[in-house]
Amino acid sequence: MRRRRRIAYDHENHDRWLISYADFITLLFAFFVVMYAISAVSENKYRILASSLGNAFGKPGEASDIPVPQLPTATLPPEVKQRTLKQQQAIEEQEHMTEVASNLLAAMGPLVKEGKVRVTQSRRGVSIEINANVLFAAGRSELEPQSLAVLRAVAEQLRKEPFNLEITGHTDNIPISNSTFPSNWELSAVRASSVVRLLAENGIAPSRLFAIGREASQPLVSNATAEGRARNRRVELMILSSMPDVIEEIPVTPSQDKT
After folding, report:
1. Measured distance CA(73)–CA(90) in Å, rounded
2. Do residues 165 and 226 make contact, with C-beta atoms less than 8 angstroms apart?
3. Structural domain boundaries of the chain?
4. How does pLDDT run across 40-96, given as a tens digit for each residue?
5. Which of 147, 202, 217, 239 could make an SS bond with 135 (beta carbons 3.0 to 4.6 A apart)?
6. Is the pTM of this model over 0.85?
7. What's the Rg (C-alpha) of the chain?
8. What is the pLDDT of residues 144-171, one digit of tens each?
9. Alpha carbon of 60 to those of 14, 35, 46, 56, 235: distances in Å?
10. The domain 87-240 is classified under which CATH number: 3.40.50.620, 3.40.50.150, 1.10.10.10, 3.30.1330.60?
11. Sign of CA dihedral 214, 219, 224, 228
């Protein structure tokens, strides 16, 4: 009896496509790496890369013989350029204002330590808050003699600066009514005007000065206590930024209560 021959069937490999697919993915990855490498064209690096690729594919040549592609130069629209320039100017202005605030803090050091003067910085500008007790007697609008040195020191620091100054008078909520001031509105406005007049007399151009009376409409703290009312009686000198809206997306030195 003849033996039956076993017919051997080769096992069919259904995963052979993975090899070709892996080669394709590898080449695709290499292509994107090369494209990324030459996206920012450096002439020397490009010539070295081109020469290396030529050697790798059996076409050696001098790197200097390979032309460097000239990519188009990106140009910004005029409005974008203008906004970028304004933002840079705003950043420089804020840095300068920070320096001005530091100089004012140094000039009024003793009063700052006593908590009678506070200097803060915001996008709107630099604020100098002076307690009214430093400047005026109760219910009066004439500057006290000891306040003159403080305001002259401020004028000395700001005389050559280009910024406009907004001077605002604030009172507490205790009504006043006499022959001079029918209400706190008149008192706050005249106090602001007294400061404006002294700054103008000490070299600051009148065209840069604004006087505003706010009465008790913008208290910093509650008027329920004597300490709170004393804090709310104040004159605020705001050194105004010329570009407060331009820097809406630019980090600014955080406001700090210097006490």
Report:
1. 28
2. no
3. 17-65, 87-240
4. 555 566 666 666 666 665 555 554 555 555 555 556 566 656 667 778 888 888 888
5. 147
6. no
7. 37
8. 998 998 899 999 999 989 999 999 999 9
9. 40, 21, 15, 8, 80
10. 3.30.1330.60
11. negative
